[in-house]
Amino acid sequence: MGGWAIAVHGGAGVDPNLPRERQEEARQLLTRCLNLGISALRSSLSPIDVVELVIRELESDPLFNSGRGSALTAKGTVEMEASIMDGIGRRCGAVSGVTTVKNPISLARLVMDKSPHSYLGFSGAEEFAKQQGVEMVDNDYFITEDNLGMLKLAKEANSIIFDYRIPLTGSDICEKATDAPPLKMNGLPISVYAPETVGCVVVDGQGRCAAGTSTGGLMNKMSGRIGDSPLIGSGTYACDVCAVSCTGEGEAIIRGTLARDVAAVMEYKGLGLQEAVDFVIERRLDGGGQAGLIAVSSKGEVACGFNSVGMFRGCANEDGFMEVGIWD
């Protein structure tokens, strides 16, 4: 076995004109979360505990699209979803349609640990949360001025906004600008995109892996829409070989069962972790789907891959390697 390793992400698909100030805010948040996870690993916290701890931190900061700061539905409300998976025994828990749970990732953990099920949604998930005594807040807690502005923009454009956080004002030039091709989802054009979804993957020094993903979904989405993030095997997967968290166009990730496929090609084709990540990004995203993922292996390797314009991500390992990035 190798040493421990950890990776976090804040979404694939970055506005090429994102101001430097917001880029720096994202780097600082990812660095803070990495350091939180590193400290927990050095204190011998289990991988599943580290995943939950790090994602709770991401959910509590409005910068990315999870927990506070989640994207809004067409009705102007927040419907969040999350999943978590322990590679030991492939135990898992997931929730969808959560509207008042402060930290959806912790509710997903409770579904795994305290219920006979793997997945609860909407009113059933909310009722379970009350039974478990988790912290609840009003839906307004999750709504930010930025998101209200983006929902207005989406409605004016009559579109779903994928990877949504494009600043409404500001003239800063980003450190890397590029001409991005127009995105489509299930064949329909999507006119605007920026970062979304958060995730964390961890392996400890004993080769035990865990993964988690949390999101508010798409801006201006239909109420009741479920993406890849809570779907085990699509947005999240962990086993005795690796752990994976995905981000990007949910519908494409669902069709490609992206997270599970990383483990599958490692198991059945004998690929290494980075090879498996590259294979899945290049071969399993049909119809022009754009996505990214982070992964760790039971050997202590860490990897990421994406075919979008950038991905907010950070990774570190026991050998002292640490990197936080946005662009290629």
Keywords:
328 residues; alpha+beta; eight-stranded mixed β-sheet; four-stranded antiparallel β-sheet; 8 helices; 24% strand; globular; Peptidase_T2
Brief digest:
The protein is of the alpha+beta class and 328 residues long. It is 31% helix and 24% strand.
Descriptive report:
With 328 residues, the chain is of the alpha+beta class. Helix content is 31%, strand content 24%. The chain has an eight-stranded mixed β-sheet. A four-stranded antiparallel β-sheet has the order 9-10-11-12, with helices on one face. Helix 1 packs antiparallel against helix 2 and helix 2 runs antiparallel to helix 3.
Describe how the helices and strands are arranged:
Blueprint: E1 5-12, H1 20-42, H2 47-60, E2 80-86, E3 91-98, H3 104-114, E4 119-121, H4 122-132, H5 145-157, E5 183-185, E6 188-190, E7 198-203, E8 209-215, E9 236-238, E10 242-248, H6 250-256, H7 258-269, H8 273-283, E11 291-297, E12 302-306, E13 311-317, E14 322-325
Parallel strand pairs: 3-4
Antiparallel strand pairs: 1-7, 1-13, 2-3, 2-8, 5-6, 7-8, 9-10, 10-11, 11-12, 13-14
